[in-house]
């Protein structure tokens, strides 16, 4: 997965830096929230999902949904699927509300972005060294590429209006990329499903 990520370059990394909510995976069927929800159902114990909730009010709502689902799960396969989905939806909706994000439904499995999958796997393995190195290399390559383009076009920027505009375009791409990466790092990359701190100054 990491190899595939590196092949497609730094576009996913830039997307994470500037639109972190695009890669939120708490609402996918194979994401960590619903994985814990399945564990809770299997164990008949809601405890595994409580860590995804912010407060006692949220916990009460999810406990109620879990209890309601467990009551009817033995009434046939169709009812079981509906009950489970009701619990999943309630849990994800309440979790996202606690993070200040809208609920847009449960997403299918297999759509989690490669960098997010790699981050989860690194956590499972107990080491982020390989992932950090690869991302660092990807960022360095991307910055150098944009710098080189802007530097080359800067040499000819006064030769014509066309050359000047080409320089401005490459300059904007360069500084905005750097700014996006800086803002993500400075902001700690929090799970706020939020907006970029980058401002369009140009």
What does this molecule look like?
The chain has 202 residues and is mainly α. It has two domains: 95 residues, no CATH class; 67 residues, no CATH class. It has eight helices and no strands. Helix 2 crosses helix 8 and helix 3 crosses helix 5.
Structural class: mainly alpha
Q: Whole-number average pLDDT?
A: 84
Compute the number of helices. 8
Instruction: Give Rg in angstroms.
Output: 22 Å
How many E strands? 0
Shape descriptor: elongated
The proportion of residues in beta strands is under 5%
Summarize the amount of helix as a percent range: 55-70%
Topology:
Elements: H1 2-7, H2 11-18, H3 32-43, H4 56-72, H5 77-98, H6 114-125, H7 129-155, H8 161-186
Short structural description:
With 202 residues, the protein is mainly alpha-helical.
List keywords for this structure.
202 residues; disordered N terminus; 2 domains; disordered C terminus; mainly alpha; single chain
């Amino acid at each position: 997965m990491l190899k595939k990520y590196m092949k497609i370059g730094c576009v996913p990394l830039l997307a994470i830096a500037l639109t972190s909510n695009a890669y939120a995976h708490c609402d996918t069927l194979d994401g960590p929230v619903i994985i814990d929800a399945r564990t809770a159902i299997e164990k008949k114990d809601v405890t595994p999902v409580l860590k995804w909730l912010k407060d006692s009010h949220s916990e009460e709502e999810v406990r109620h949904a879990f209890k309601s689902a467990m009551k009817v799960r033995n009434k046939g396969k169709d009812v079981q699927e509906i009950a489970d989905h009701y619990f999943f939806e309630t849990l994800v909706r309440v979790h996202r509300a606690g993070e200040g994000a809208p609920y847009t439904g449960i997403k299918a499995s297999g759509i989690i972005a490669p960098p997010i999958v790699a981050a989860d796997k690194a956590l499972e393995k107990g080491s982020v060294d390989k992932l950090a190195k690869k991302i660092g290399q990807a960022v360095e390559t991307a910055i150098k590429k944009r710098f080189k383009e802007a530097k080359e076009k800067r040499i000819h920027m006064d030769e014509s209006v066309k050359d000047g505009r080409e320089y401005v375009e490459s300059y904007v791409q360069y500084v905005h990329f750097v700014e996006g990466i800086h803002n993500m790092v400075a902001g700690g990359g929090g799970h706020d499903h939020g907006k970029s701190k980058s401002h369009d100054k140009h």
